[in-house]
Amino acid sequence: MKASAVQKRKFLILVKKLADFGTIYDKTKFRNEGDDIYAFKPQPDRYLCFFFTGKKIIVTNVYHKKSDKLPPNEKSTALKNMAAYKKAVDEKNKNGKGE
């Protein structure tokens, strides 16, 4: 998905808000989707992500919102990408290359 400059700015504003305040209380902008997956929700897009060691936010996938519910295939993609990322980091650490 190609994001416009306005869409990118909306997303970055939410990330900065999370960094500055430690949380975003407005569930219309940020929400725990379960299974350690979170969603930044700048309209009309959704950025699925998870938190990783060292206060890192890893964005797993982005989609254009078309319904009120999180599509199961999008959450499944996020979970698969999270597992792949963690596996890659574990393998780097085992090989002594660090993160």
Protein architecture, described:
The protein has a single domain (5-94), classed as YaeB-like fold. The chain is built from two helices and four strands; from the N terminus they run H-E-E-E-E-H. The protein starts with a helix and ends in a 5-residue tail after the last helix. The mean pLDDT is 92. The longest helix has 23 residues, at 72-94. The chain is globular and about 40 Å long. It is of the alpha+beta class and 99 residues long. It has helices at residues 5-21, 72-94, and strands at residues 30-34, 37-40, 45-52, 56-64. It has a four-stranded antiparallel beta sheet with strand order 1-2-3-4. The chain is 40% helix and 26% strand.
Considering the chains and any ligands shown, give keywords for the structure.
99 residues; alpha+beta; YaeB-like fold; four-stranded antiparallel β-sheet; 4 strands; 40% helix
CATH class: Alpha Beta
How many DSSP helices? 2
Secondary-structure class: alpha+beta
Helix content: 40-55%
Q: What value does the Rg take, in angstroms?
A: 14 Å
